[in-house]
Amino acid sequence: MKTNQAVALAVIATGVLALLPVARAVAQAPPTPDEMVGALKQNLAESQKRLRQYEWVETTTISLKGEQKSRKQQRVYYGADGKLTKLPVGDPPAQQAAQGGGRGGRGGGRLKEQVVENKKDEMAEYMEKSAALIHLYVPPNPEQIQKAKDAGNMAVRQQPPGVRVEFKNYLQPNDLMAIDVDAKAALLSALSVQTYLEKQEDAVTLNVRFGALADGTSYTVQTNLDVKAKNIAVVVANSGHRPLAR
To answer: What is the rounded CA–CA span in Å between residue 158 and residue 30?
Structure first.
């Protein structure tokens, strides 16, 4: 893959970021926002193209106060229409039997059970929103990157041995997404996000770890999301990449 950008930066599509060669060393001044946005958008398209040759398994685990509450696996691939497709792996979890049939009696006991179930439903919904938040930031959206740059919310900084690209107010007021590139290794080294769910008090941190396939294609090995206010942790892991059979 060739690039004439000041620094070649790889960003993933659907949770994958691609390795890129570096056109010139980052020992000099950081690239301009225009140069970096151009590299991001160009290489995002390249990354999407390469990933369409693969399918993989996405495993999402949600924990509350350190206790695992749900685990879901999906087969992930790009369909012929170019859209990301996710299909459940294995049998769906069995529905729990309805509780309270013969134990709650009448009156206050049944009302108490109703309150408890409502709280469980609210927490389950909150945990699902936490998991969905990951996919709003990973992969970074080219249009949103351009929008952040045009609004003056993008900064490019030297951070030896590479470059850090920061986007403030990326999706929400006062959020921050940062992408680190190791220029010497020509490898995207990290992606991190500071954001929130419904209110800014519901602070969320997001950290991504990367790996590379045999052909050099880089991908998201694991994404960790932490909602400290609710003691919720979400882990999304990608594994089992193999050529997609059409």
So the answer is: 6
Residue 97 has pLDDT above 70, yes or no: no
Beta-carbon neighbour count of residue 115 at 10 Å?
A: 9
> E strands of the chain, at which residues?
54-64, 67-78, 84-88, 154-159, 162-168, 176-182, 187-196, 203-212, 218-227, 232-243
pLDDT higher than threshold 50 for residue 235: yes
pLDDT, position 2: 38
- Cα(222)–Cα(158) distance, integer angstroms: 26
CA distances to 16, 73, 165 from 21, rounded to whole Å, are 17, 33, 17
100: pLDDT confidence band, cut at 50, 70 and 90? Answer: very low
- What percent helix, strand, coil does the chain show, rounded to 5? 25, 35, 40
Q: Strands, E, within 16-160: which ranges?
A: 54-64, 67-78, 84-88, 154-159
Structural domain including 211 reads 1-246
> What is the Cα–Cα distance from 5 to 18, expressed in whole angstroms?
15
- At residue 79, φ and ψ (nearest 5 deg) are -80, 175
Domains: count for the chain: 1
Q: What is the DSSP pairing of strand 176-182 with strand 187-196? A: antiparallel
Instruction: Report the distance separating Cα 73 and Cα 35, nearest Å.
Output: 38
Omega before 161 cis (within 30°)?
A: yes
Q: What dihedral do alpha carbons 57, 58, 64, 65 form, nearest 10°? A: 80
What residues have CB less than 8 Å from 98, skipping those under 6 apart?
Answer: none
Q: Could you give the C-alpha distances from 212 to 16, 52, 104, 114, 127, in angstroms and in order? A: 10, 16, 54, 49, 30
